[in-house]
Specification:
Mean pLDDT: 95
Distance between the termini: 15 Å
Shape: globular
Largest sheet: 5 strands, mixed
Number of domains: 2
Number of helices: 11
CATH architecture of the largest domain: 3-Layer(aba) Sandwich
CATH class of the largest domain: Alpha Beta
Structural class: alpha/beta
CATH topology of the largest domain: Peroxisomal Thiolase, Chain A, domain 1
Low-confidence stretches: none
Helix content: 25-40%
Strand order of the largest sheet: 1-7-6-4-5
Oligomer: single chain
CATH superfamily of the largest domain: Thiolase/Chalcone synthase
Number of strands: 13
Bound molecules: acetyl coenzyme *A
Radius of gyration: 19 Å
Length: 326
């Protein structure tokens, strides 16, 4: 059994924040941000949470697929910014869209999350366990950012993207996934520290993991991505016996325009094959690939049979490159 994309959906909060606005908050400029990253605007939520945006993106994907929500067997939400420890985001989406026959859980793999979730769904579909999966990436990164820290607050945005995939007789799916926990410090965001009657409060106050905003070694991440991603793209092409000429698009995590340009150069593939929307939405982590896929789908850029490479990379470190046939 193989897998097909049936539909997509996305939801972006209404409030757009441009680089000019950020220049009023921190010592930065439109020129610095756009020349280093390609980002000009991002959407920032003023109330809607991760589950709410996920459910809105999911509802659009369900409506476009023209399926009964009761036919969804599994919902996986990729997120590193859930609203709550409990319940998980996927259960909240389930309740909202009425997918009462689905098993629901979240998956945390930072900006690789959507590709990892897709691979998890594929495994269930391929094995014949489930027929229909709803995969979502949803993030409220604005709550994880130190808005006084210019090196990170200019990079991220909020949003959600969703896709419905179904088991199919035909299709193509090849992946290279990986993780390297020894490089965990390249991208971090500590959550709660351990609080219980056995731990004194004082011991926490000196613990540097108590810093609870996104911290990033930007140059380290840059080097990791431009070394790893072209290699994994070549590996999936070899595994699937596809040539570069057969690949219609490289849909990469929308972290940074310079990263995408470097990957395009390394692969000797035209930048036109690397669609981008990071100028409008910034880096939305696990949501960036499904949001971009949805925008491409709505613009009729995707035709049945197109071979597309999806690639996510980020904290962990984690990375995942998957070749799909649309
Ligand atoms: N505005 C103005 N100046 C800034 C800003 C800003 N927003 N941010 C940093 N600077 C300054 C720094 O303070 C520093 O000043 P100094 O030289 O006086 O000390 C100078 O710019 C250079 O800082 P760097 O951090 O070295 O900047 P760099 O050139 O590396 O650019 C960037 C930063 C764009 C993040 C780059 O490292 C990069 O592209 N990294 C790739 C990783 C990435 O995009 N991560 C996104 C999230 S992770 C992910 O999604 C996988």
């Amino acid at each position: 059994m193989e897998m097909r994309f049936v539909s997509t959906g996305s939801y972006l909060p209404e409030q757009a924040v441009d680089n000019e606005y950020l220049s009023g908050i921190v010592d930065t400029s439109d020129e610095w941000i756009s020349s280093r990253t390609g980002i000009r605007k991002r959407r920032i939520t003023v109330g809607e949470g991760t589950a709410c945006m996920a459910a809105k993106a999911a509802a659009k994907a369900v409506a476009r697929a023209d399926i009964d929500p009761l036919d969804i067997d599994i919902i996986i939400v990729a997120t590193m910014s859930p609203d709550n420890f409990l319940p998980n985001t996927a259960c909240e989406v389930q309740a909202e869209i009425g997918a009462m026959h689905a098993v629901c859980y979240d998956l945390s793999a930072a900006c690789s999350g959507f590709v990892f979730a897709l691979n998890t769904a594929y495994s269930f579909l391929k094995a014949g366990i489930y027929k229909t999966a709803l995969i979502i990436g949803s993030e409220v990164l604005s709550k994880m950012i130190d808005w006084n820290e210019r090196s990170t607050c200019v990079l991220f945005g909020d949003g959600a993207g969703a896709a419905i995939v179904q088991a199919s007789e035909t299709g193509l799916f090849e992946s290279v996934l990986g993780s390297d926990g020894t490089r965990k410090n390249s991208l971090t965001c500590a959550s709660r520290y351990i609080i219980n009657p056995l731990v004194s409060q004082d011991s926490n106050s000196t613990d540097e993991t108590a810093l609870d905003y996104i911290k990033m070694d930007g140059q380290e991440v840059f080097k990791f991505v431009i070394k790893t991603i072209p290699l994994t793209i070549q590996q999936v092409m070899e595994k699937s016996c596809c040539t570069k000429e057969e690949i219609r698009y490289y849909v990469l995590h929308q972290a940074n325009q310079r990263i995408l340009e470097s990957v395009s150069k390394k692969l000797k593939e035209p930048i036109e094959k690397f669609p981008m929307n990071l100028d409008k939405y910034g880096n939305t982590s696990a949501a960036s690939i499904p949001i971009l896929l949805d925008k491409m789908n709505k613009r009729n850029m995707l035709d049945r049979g197109d071979k597309i490479i999806l690639s996510g990379f980020g904290g962990g470190l984690t990375w995942g490159t998957t070749l799909i046939e649309w």
